[in-house]
Amino acid sequence: MFERYYRELLSFLSRKVSDRATAADLAQESYARVYEAQRTGSVVRDPRALLYRTARNLVTDHHRRTSVRAGGEVAGADEAPVELDDFIGPETFEPDTILSSSQGLAAMVETIDKLPLRCREAFVLYKFDGLSYAEVAERMGISVRTVEMQLRIAMDACWACQERTHGPQGPR
Fold it and tell me: Between residues 92 and 167, which one has the greater pLDDT?
């Protein structure tokens, strides 16, 4: 599992945290947690999905810690007390939103998995590995025009999935 997904996961995390060293730490922690889940006997049907979900959770935790550190000064005696209701949190932390997004994620993963093999390969190389059209074309031994066509098919499928799960006015 490590060899198969590490580079892909590292690229994904690098885009999320904008720091390669932090991304490497988060990737390592993601793998450690997935391996621990497997070691304890939990049935892991889709290790890649669990790996990405774990990584996303770790990114969220990282951003929370970073924002707390950045604005973590204690209120002085002359400042008004802070009400907890002022810090309810963003809508993305609401249970309904989380459930909706996890269902949407599952639908999107299923959509990507159902793409034709070459189309899926081009999509993963471009979106997850961060390769340019020319690099994807070279890696796959096809023309840049064919890469464009394959990515258009993949993106159309993803947009259709997005509209099915979130409606025509869903987040884009």
Answer: 167
**CATH number for the domain running over 95-172:** 1.10.10.10
pLDDT, one tens digit per residue, over 109-118 is: 888 899 999 9
Specify the CATH architecture of the domain 1-64. Answer: Orthogonal Bundle (1.10)
Angstrom distance (rounded) from CA 124 to CA 141:
15
Please give the structure tokens belonging to residue 128: 């997850």
* Helix 144-166 with 117-127: angle, nearest 10 deg: 90
Q: Cα–Cα distance between 118 and 58 in angstroms, integer?
A: 31
Element (H, E) at 64: helix 47-70
pLDDT at position 168: 63
Q: Which residue has the tokens 């991304």?
A: 23
